[in-house]
């Protein structure tokens, strides 16, 4: 490995979260003692009483619910207007959001929704995947749940720290090698069965463009990204904007001789069109 690589999997220990306890209670809810009214649990500094059958559970339960929704309202109030729209979809992004998932601003608008990430991971089951633009871990976590091994790369150290933190919540941090680095510099030294590409789309304003094209991808155009990936393996998955010019995506397969198989899939969450996925070579199940 090159000197510039930082592998956080073994070293980072910043998260204070613990996994669900064997009874399935949230990690920040600790049982303290028993009382006449039932079991007592500590949630942060609040005491929450579980009710005995003879008491009035409906009223009490309502009070707990109120405390929780106050917490959510407080969280919502601290969120920037740009992020708010994405925060409202938080459980589509991470189903275990309430267990302490963290995102930075770019993470909020660029993370792959969990349902789509699961779909991508299903194609890679049992294999070693290189997630070249890992962000806050939306894809890397799902790969780790289904695949043999995952290498997660991001140029931004904060993203890798967040991805590590979020992977811990899902209990998969040990199955991912986290690397802070530039994918284009690292590509020649990487080995894996499948390369996963979800490069930046240039921020939420990509939606305003009538037809997105490969030149608009960041930090380099889509052809350069694809060619760097091809040096590792022809088995490539690329997650792209919904308004992408599909002819250009097919053209990517012609960069190889003979041309690679390519399959293009539309991805929806809750009926909303979120993006398209291009599967190349062995990860393509159908020819386009
Ligand atoms: C669309 S986001 C990835 C989101 C990720 N799939 C997820 O679900 O969390 C793109 C990421 O690429 C990273 N990035 C940009 N340039 C990079 C480079 N040259 N090498 C590696 N990562 C890069 C950004 O920091 C950003 O986190």
Task: Supply the key terms.
binds S-adenosylmethionine; 7-stranded mixed sheet; alpha/beta; 3-stranded antiparallel sheet; 10 strands; 288 residues; single chain
Q: How is the biggest beta sheet arranged?
A: 7 strands, mixed
Uncertain regions: pLDDT < 50 for 5+ in a row?
Answer: 1-58
Summarize the helix and strand pattern as letters.
EEEHHHHHEHEHEHEHEHEE
Per DSSP E runs of 2 or more residues, the count of β-strands stands at 10
The spatial strand order of the largest sheet comes to 6-5-4-7-8-10-9
Bound molecules: S-adenosylmethionine
General form: globular
Describe this structure in words.
The chain is built from ten helices and ten strands. The strands form two sheets. The protein has a seven-stranded mixed β-sheet with strand order 6-5-4-7-8-10-9, with helices on both faces. With 288 residues, the chain is α/β, with parallel strands linked by helices. The radius of gyration is 22 Å and the shape is globular. 31% of the residues lie in helices and 20% in strands. The structure holds S-adenosylmethionine. Residues 110-112, 133-139, 153-156, 159, 182-184, 198-200, 219 line the site of S-adenosylmethionine.
Map the helices and strands.
Layout: E1 29-35, E2 38-43, E3 46-49, H1 57-77, H2 81-87, H3 90-93, H4 105-110, H5 114-122, E4 128-131, H6 138-146, E5 149-154, H7 157-169, E6 176-180, H8 183-186, E7 194-197, H9 222-230, E8 236-240, H10 246-253, E9 262-269, E10 272-280
Parallel strand pairs: 4-5, 4-7, 5-6, 7-8
Antiparallel strand pairs: 1-2, 2-3, 8-10, 9-10
Helix pairs in contact: 5-6
The structure holds S-adenosylmethionine.
The site of S-adenosylmethionine has 22 residues, from helix 6, strand 5 and helix 8.
